[in-house]
Amino acid sequence: MALPWEYVVPGAAALLATVFAVSAFGKFRDPRAFAEALEPLRLVPRRLLLPVAVGVPAAETVVVAAFGGYAVGVESAAGLAFAGALALLGVFTAVVVFSLRRRPSARCHCFGRTGAAYAPRHVVRNAGLGAAAVLGVLGAASAGVPEPAGVAVAVLAGAVAGVLVTAMDDVVELFA
Questions:
Q1: How far apart are CA 53 and CA 27, in angstroms?
Q2: Residues ≥6 apart with Cβ < 8 Å to 65
Q3: What Cα–Cα distance (Å) separates residue 101 from each residue in 39, 60, 68, 89, 118?
Q4: What is the domain partition of the chain in residue ranges?
Q5: Contact partners, residue 37, CB within 8 Å, separation at least 6
Q6: pTM for the full model?
Q7: Inter-axis angle of helices 168-175 and 120-140, nearest 10
Q8: Which of 12, 46, 129, 134 minimizes the number of CB atoms within 10 Å of its CB?
Q9: Which candidate, 29, 108, 113, 12, places its Cα nearest to that of 63?
C-alpha cells in the first residue's frame, strides 16, 4: 500500500510548523536566557552567544514562514520548508549529541524554557521530526490532489502531534 502523500505532506507540514513556531516564539521571548543556556555547551565564543541566540529563532521563523507559503498555495515553498527544517534539525541533533558526550549538565532550552538535561530522548525526538521532514520532501513532489476534509484531519493531527512534541519534557517529568 502506498503512502497517501496528499495527506502526509500537509500533516508533516503542520507538525513541523507547530514545533518550529513554538520553538522560535519561546527563544525570541527571552533571547538572553537562550544565550545563557548555550554557554555551557561552549560551541561559540561568548561574544557571539546573543547573536546566535537571535539567529537560531530567526532561522526557525523562516522555516515557519515557508510552511505558511505552502499552506496558502505556494507549492514550491513546501520543498524549501521541509529542507530547511531538516537542516535545522540536523544542527540541533548534532548539538544534542555533542552535549551528551561532553557537557552532560547542559539543559535543553529547545522551546524557550529551561527543560531537562539533554538526554537520548532528544535525539529520538529530532530523528522523528527529521523523518517527518524527509517524508515531506519526498511527498511534496508526488502529492496528488487531496480532499479538503482529509487535509483538515491531517493538519489537525500534525498540529496536535507538534504540541505534544513541544511538551515532551514536561510529560516525561510528570511520569518520572
A1: 7
A2: none
A3: 16, 25, 36, 18, 10
A4: 10-138+147-175
A5: 106, 107, 109, 114
A6: 0.92
A7: 140
A8: 46
A9: 12
Scanning the structure block, which residue is given the C-alpha cell 529563532? 57
First to last CA, the chain: 39
What is d(CA 96, CA 38) in angstroms, rounded to the nearest whole number? 11
Do the Cβ atoms of 34 and 53 come closer than 8 Å?
yes
Q: What's the full length of the chain, in residues?
A: 176
CA distance linking residue 109 with residue 117, whole number of Å: 9
Each residue of 66-112: pLDDT tens digit?
999 999 989 889 999 999 999 999 999 999 999 898 866 788 788 87
